[in-house]
Amino acid sequence: MTAPIVISGAASWNRIVLLDRLPEPVPHMQFALAEHETIGGTSAGKALGLVGLGRPVRLHTLIGDDADGERVRRVLAASGIEVDDLPVEATERHLNLMTAAGERVSLYLSTPADPGTPPSAGLVQAMTDAAAIVLDLSERSRGLIATARATGTPIWTDIHDYDGRAEFHRPFIEAADWIFMNADCIGDDPVPFMERCVLGGASVVVCTLGAQGAVAVDADLTVHRVAAVPVEVVDTNGAGDAFMSGVLDAHLAGAGLDAALEAGARHAATALTTRHLHPSLDGLLAASA
Description:
By secondary structure, the protein is an alpha/beta fold. Helices cover 34% and strands 26% of the residues. Helix 1 crosses helix 7 (239-252). The longest helix is centred in the C-terminal third of the chain and has 15 residues, at 257-271.
C-alpha cells in the first residue's frame, strides 16, 4: 500500500455567513443572505482533496477536546483521513464573511497555540516514507521544517496571499520544493517573485489567479499557464487547496507540469460547486446536521 502523504497544518470548524457586500468599517447593520457551519482549514481542505482523489493522507494538526473538535475529528475520520492530532486548549474556529463574488473576511475566533511537543517517532517515520510532505503555514509546521528537510522527502507549501515581505513565510519558502500562492497581495505580476523563488532553490512555483486560472514557473524559468475550468460557483472556500491537491496527485502519478496544472484546475472546479471543502461532505454533513 502507498505510504500516506503527510500534511501539517490547520483544521478548523467554521461558520460561513453570506452577505450581499462585505461590511464597511463603520458602525451599521446588515442582514445575512444565508449561513452554515462546516469544517475548514487549509490543511483539512488539502487532505480532503487528496483522499477524494484516492491518495492516503496523514493529517498532523491541533484539535481541542471540545464540541467543535469532536465535529472536526468526526468529519476527518469519516472521510478516510488518518488524523495525527495534538490536544490543545481550544479547536481553531473561524467566522467567514463571504459575498457571492468570492470576497471574504475571515475572523479567527480561536487559534490554538503550538504545544511545542517534539515530533513523534511515528510522525518522523511517516514523513520519511511519504512521497511528499505538505507544510502549511502555522507555528506547528514551522517547527517541523528541519525535521521534514532531514527526511529528504519533497516538501510542498502554500504561502497563500504572501506580500513578498512577511518574515513568517520565509522559512517555508526556503525549504519547499514546490511553492503555491495566490496573487492577492504580491502585485500585478507575480512572475518576477516566482522566478526569484526558483532561483532561490524551489523546483516549481505556482500562483493561482482565481477566474483567470493559474501561472507556474519551473526550474528552467519557463512560464506555464492554465485556464480556469468554467463552472457555476456555489462557494469559493477551499478552491486553492483543491487546486494544489489536484496538482500534487497528478505529479505523483507522473504527469508533466502542464498536465498537472490542468488536473489542478479540474479539481478546483469541483470545490467551487459545494458549500464545503469537498463535494463528498455534502451528504456527510447533511446527515450529521
